[in-house]
Amino acid sequence: MIATAFAMEDTAMVARLNPYLHFDNSARAALDFYHSIFGGNLNITTYSQGGMTQNPADAEKIMHGQLESEVLILMASDSPSTMAVTLGSAISMSLSGDDEPVLRGYWRGLAEGAQITMPLKRAPWGDTFGSLTDKFGVPWMVNISDRRG
């Protein structure tokens, strides 16, 4: 089932910006990986399940995947064989907050097999910051706020 709108607790949602990542046949592995880090609920629909199979080679590719956790709503799909994919060229995922143990845990998970661009360490602006490109080619930034102000 593809979720297009939902309510959080008793508050209706008017609009929300969600990252939607496109992959070239690795969306399932990427979503499973992010699910192992962030937890939450993961729903996946293949092109065949969604009735969108024009090319048999696309049948088991992910038409829509959605991960909902306490931290994020992340959506992803595999591009069908008729569409090209350029990974990581125009977006970075950014995690930020002041819960250092939680954010460091996310960093450790994302760093598995990643290319570390900037190690997670104290930044000139006082926060702890790091950036990496995960094993699926998605750029991530993690910023842990300095609660001391």
Strand order of the largest sheet: 1-4-3-2
Number of DSSP helical runs: 2
Q: Enumerate the spans where pLDDT stays under 50 for 5 or more consecutive residues.
A: 1-10
Largest sheet: 4 strands, mixed
The average pLDDT value, as a whole number, equals 85
**How many β-strand stretches?**
8
Distance between the termini: 44 Å
Q: Estimate what percentage of residues fall within beta strands.
A: 25-35%
The percent of residues in helical segments reads 10-25%
Described by its quaternary structure, the protein is single chain
Structural class: alpha/beta
3D shape: elongated
Order of helices and strands: EHEEEEHEEE
Radius of gyration: 17 Å
